[in-house]
Amino acid sequence: MKVSGRCHCGNISYEAEVDPSKVSVCHCSDCQMLSGSAYRASVQAPRETFTLRGGPPKIYIKTADSGNQRAHAFCPQCGTPVYSAALSDPAAYSLRVGCLDQRQQLPPSRQIWCQSALGWSSNLERIEQVSRQ
To answer: Which of 2, 12, 27, 30 is the most buried (most CB within 10 A)?
Structure first.
C-alpha cells in the first residue's frame, strides 16, 4: 500500500510502501515517553520505498539496554515524531501511523511489550466520548 505522511507543520513530508497487515502497537516505556502517549502505533517501510521531502529531520539517538542504537527522527520546527530506524544503513523505517494520511486504513494487527502497557489503555469504550471539544 502506498502511503504519504507529514509532520504537523508540513515542514517534513514523505511517501513509502507499507504492508497494512504489519501495523503494530508498542507499549514499551520508551515508546510511551517518546510519543507522550500510552503507546505508539507504527508500520515498517522498506528503505527502497521511503522518500523524504522537505526540511531535514532532527535526529535523536536512543541507546537500548542491549547497546543497540536507533535514530528517532522528528520535525525540528513542530516536534512531530516522524520515524525511527537503525542508526547506520537502515533496512526499513518505522513510520508513525498518526502522521500518515491513510491512518484510518491502518489498524494494528499486533501489540508488543504488553508487560509495560498501562492498565487503562486496553479498553477505552466505557469512557465518556465527546465528538468535538
So the answer is: 12
